[in-house]
Model the fold of this input.
Amino acid sequence: MRTVAFAAALLALGTGMAGAQNLTIATGLQLNTMDPHFFNGFPAGNAHPQIFEGLTEIDEALQTKPALATAWRMLDANTWEFDLRPGVRFHDGTPFTARDITATFARVPNVPNSPALFTQFIRPIREVQVVAENRIRIVTNTPTATLPGDLARVLLVAERDAGQTTGDFNAGRVNGTGPYRFAGWTNSESLSITRNDAYWGQRAPWRAVQMRTIARDPSRVAALLAGDVDAIDLVPTADKARIAADPRFRLFSGPAAVVHYIAMDAVRADSPFVAGRDGQRLATNPLSDRRVRQALSIAIDRSAITQRLMEGSATPASQFLPSSIEGTSPNLRPAPFDPARARALLAEAGFPQGFRLTLHATTDRYPKDEQVAQAVAQMWTRIGLQASVAGVAGQVFFAEASRQAYSAFIAQYGTNEAGEGPRALVHSFEAGRGYGNANRTRFSDPRLDALIQDALSEIDPERRNAKLHAAIEAAMEEAAIIPIFHPSWDFAAKRGIHVTPRPERRFNALMIRPD
Done:
């Protein structure tokens, strides 16, 4: 375990609003790095924007807003111009300049051992030109309508910090421009930050914030009820009524721009956790057959999972994002539960007796993550598979999934834009171009790739949405992934604190203000 801590006053950090305006929150997210470019995952995406900033930011309505860039404009199909915010300084006093942008962009694709790089967000960029002291021009290789929003995901570091290793960041060499300064960190346990009183923007409401990781739901609720923390995320559905009835607390809830999905190894002829019912190696990998993947999808009773297991804190999914979000397909509906048709599809594919399959899942990452996997496995068993679940701790799970150690796994992916899911999850993996960044099974379909690239390069909003619809519908028809549900985010806080839910998986000081 790595612990970085200083600013001795933080050791006495208390809760409550009085006087010092300190805030303590408990989250299920386990932050395992302070490197803003190491892992494109929920914990880093949640914690790091309190300290670091991008040229733009995404607000709670999923709209792109100014951050370190005050404005931007498209000069032609491949050229964008950004006005940089003047007078900004990093926490160590270093002025923010265009050189920090070019240094950050050069670092992003070259972070060793990353389980999920941020390369996809800068993939189209050919060069960055300095036009004036506070103006840059970004030239892309292809038309990229999403560039301003993509750049919200690339947090900027000072030029001199761009040469740091992940170990350097984890040792406490953390220097951003954001509303809070780094104060201390214990790997997967806690993060302490303090208000940046020299911040260029609105003054942060909290003098000091401690984010504690409490992975177990009962322990997180107990900490709130005992007064040890001021607010919590991922309120268990079984506890919502009790908390709502307690006058000391308030509940907050919002829809999630996240999909809980299954990824399958459709590429390798011999997949490590697939076998015949007798345990012997099969001549072909069943998951490479689209009919098998479709069978596994329609064998899942999404309504049962969302209503009974998730107790209504989720909705059945038909695609990468909820259909209320712009760019999603209006034509898709959640796959109907049809076990008879699933068995018929297996027989058509040459597996009338089913086969053995292990579904890997995290045990500590998402609400009821292992229980959802067990429910899916039971449903697969009913159509003839010998399905089992292997639970894995989150920190191990993603590293193993990234090296294609699994035949099928269940996880979540969140995004703020409809084209990002197809680009990251189902486009063929191309590290140099940033495609398939989260495609850990290395699924590949040239026709689907072409549809995704065509949609992402379209500048006209109406035509782009039509092309996105076609790409998303093709991915679902191919069963490139199996979407199960979209969760909702539930929070609880002491009276006197207001939490603004966001569609992304977030719970941080930027969402929380005193009433």
In short: Residues 5-19 have pLDDT under 50 and may be disordered. The longest helix spans residues 461-477. The first strand starts at residue 3 and ends at 5.
